[in-house]
């Protein structure tokens, strides 16, 4: 945005808040599923761990098609409310309703069919896609300036922290609301409604924001995908996010298993809330510090520092045992939360930079294509990470619905928690090394 003298002006906190709060609904949905889906399938529905891992993978196949398709649809949409905003509301209805359908499935005929269980999972992913692909395309439309976009994304990171805390707390909510399947069903009603409210809020919160008209130039779908991947900064960022999301989703999915079986806590929901609360406070406090680091060291170097910090914190799970002190437990949560703030802020703020870079080079407005590709790696990671984690647990002998686990299975949970995130984050440093888009280079790039 520019003022009357042509200078860059801030979009204002109301627009930043109005756009950012949609992340709260999306984050609640994503983190609830990341934390509970594998546990719900095995310990509530009683599906064998290897089979549950396969169901998660199959349910996500549709997302590989839906995400880029949704980007194309939102790019070509033209309504009185703009290209993106109607899908924010529609996605909220679908996602919130599907969340309720899945977590009440143990009380319905759905639980008797693996096909129906997979379809209910796919419906959740569809609702998230309808919302998130247009949503992530909006910052590059709403804000022009390199630094102002980082400020806008910082609101998203703040709401991701709250959403993560709420999402992980759903296990404790289910414990308090009833035994077994009934508790999860009651939890789903409250959480599904909140997903709809916060996703829908963004529809009204961005009403005063700038929106571009639909691009009239006809570019075939697969040609747009090819051109999108030719954007070298975007391709490097995509590879980085793909591998890092494996680490993040693994960390979330394994949390309930680590707390229950490695730390030996009877009510894992309480400790998960404590861990997430401490992480959220550290993540929120870290945002101004990470923002200042980007001004001094640029975004790529800052991203690398956060990556190393999160990996080191993950390795401390090797020391986890029932004798672990609460102080050490909270210290780990603090370090991981602080690092997560940098990971989220850098990854999210670099995406609109790569989209602007594409526009400056091509003159095409195709934000939805890039957000669709960005979202698909999120979906693939969210399906593969729990799947690989579940297969790892199966290899170490984990038994679904068993009151206790063997020493080998418990050690396997500990090793997966420590080493899998580190492996994924180490791999992410390779594409991140090739990300070279700086503020100076972006401003020097002109429309072709």
Task: Explain what the structure shows.
This protein has 448 residues and is mainly α. It has a single domain (14-206, 222-444), classed as Up-down Bundle (Growth Hormone, Chain: A). It contains 15 helices and no strands. The chain has helices at 13-20, 22-44, 49-76, 85-103, 114-137, 139-142, 146-177, 181-205, 221-229, 232-262, 268-315, 326-362, 367-395, 407-433, 439-444. The two termini are 22 Å apart.
Quick take:
78% of the residues lie in helices and 0% in strands. It has helices spanning 13-20, 22-44, 49-76, 85-103, 114-137, 139-142, 146-177, 181-205, 221-229, 232-262, 268-315, 326-362, 367-395, 407-433, 439-444.
C-alpha end-to-end distance: 22 Å
Q: How big a fraction of the residues is strand?
A: under 5%
CATH architecture: Up-down Bundle
Q: Write down the CATH topology.
A: Growth Hormone, Chain: A
Number of helices: 15
Question: What kind of sheet is the major sheet?
Answer: none
What is the number of independent domains?
1
- One letter per element, helices H and strands E, the order comes to HHHHHHHHHHHHHHH
User: Spans with pLDDT under 50 lasting ≥5 residues?
Assistant: 1-9
Helical fraction equals over 70%
């Amino acid at each position: 945005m520019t003022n009357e003298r042509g200078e860059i002006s801030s979009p204002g906190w109301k627009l930043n808040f109005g756009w950012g709060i949609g992340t709260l609904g999306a984050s609640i949905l994503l983190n609830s599923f990341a934390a509970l889906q594998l546990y719900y399938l095995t310990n509530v529905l009683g599906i064998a761990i290897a089979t549950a891992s396969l169901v998660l993978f199959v349910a996500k196949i549709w997302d590989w098609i839906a995400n880029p398709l949704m980007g194309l649809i939102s790019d070509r949409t033209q309504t009185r409310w703009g290209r993106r905003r109607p899908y924010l509301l529609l996605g909220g209805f679908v996602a919130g309703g599907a969340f309720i359908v899945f977590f009440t499935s143990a009380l319905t005929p759905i639980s008797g069919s693996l096909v129906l269980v997979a379809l209910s999972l796919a419906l959740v992913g569809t609702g998230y896609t309808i919302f998130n692909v247009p949503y992530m395309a909006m910052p590059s439309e709403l804000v022009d300036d390199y630094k102002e976009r980082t400020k806008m994304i910082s609101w998203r990171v703040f709401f991701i922290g709250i959403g993560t805390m709420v999402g992980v707390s759903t296990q404790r909510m289910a414990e308090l609301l009833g035994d077994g399947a009934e508790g999860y069903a009651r939890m789903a009603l409250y959480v599904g409604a909140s997903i709809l409210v916060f996703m829908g809020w963004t529809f009204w919160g961005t009403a005063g924001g700038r929106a571009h008209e639909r691009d009239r130039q006809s570019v075939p779908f697969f040609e747009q995908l090819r051109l999108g991947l030719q954007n070298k900064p975007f391709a490097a960022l995509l590879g980085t996010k793909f591998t890092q999301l494996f680490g993040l989703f693994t960390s979330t999915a394994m949390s309930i298993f680590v707390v229950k079986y490695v730390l030996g806590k009877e009510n894992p929901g309480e400790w998960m809330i404590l861990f997430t609360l401490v992480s959220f406070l550290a993540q929120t406090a870290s945002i101004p510090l990470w923002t200042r680091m980007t001004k001094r060291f640029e975004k790529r170097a800052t991203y690398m520092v956060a990556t190393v910090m999160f990996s080191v914190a993950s390795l401390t799970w090797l020391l986890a045992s029932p004798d672990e002190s609460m102080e050490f437990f909270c210290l780990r949560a603090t370090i991981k939360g602080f690092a997560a703030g940098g990971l989220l802020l850098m990854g999210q703020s670099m995406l609109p930079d790569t989209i602007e870079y594409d526009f400056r080079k091509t003159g095409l407005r195709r934000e939805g294509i890039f957000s669709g590709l960005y979202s698909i790696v999120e979906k693939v990671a969210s399906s593969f990470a729990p799947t690989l984690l579940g297969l790892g647990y199966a290899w170490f002998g984990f038994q679904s619905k068993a009151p206790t686990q063997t020493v080998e299975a418990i050690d396997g949970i500990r090793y997966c928690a420590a080493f899998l995130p580190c492996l994924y984050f180490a791999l992410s440093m390779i594409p991140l090394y090739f990300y070279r888009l700086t503020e100076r280079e972006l401003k020097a790039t002109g429309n072709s």
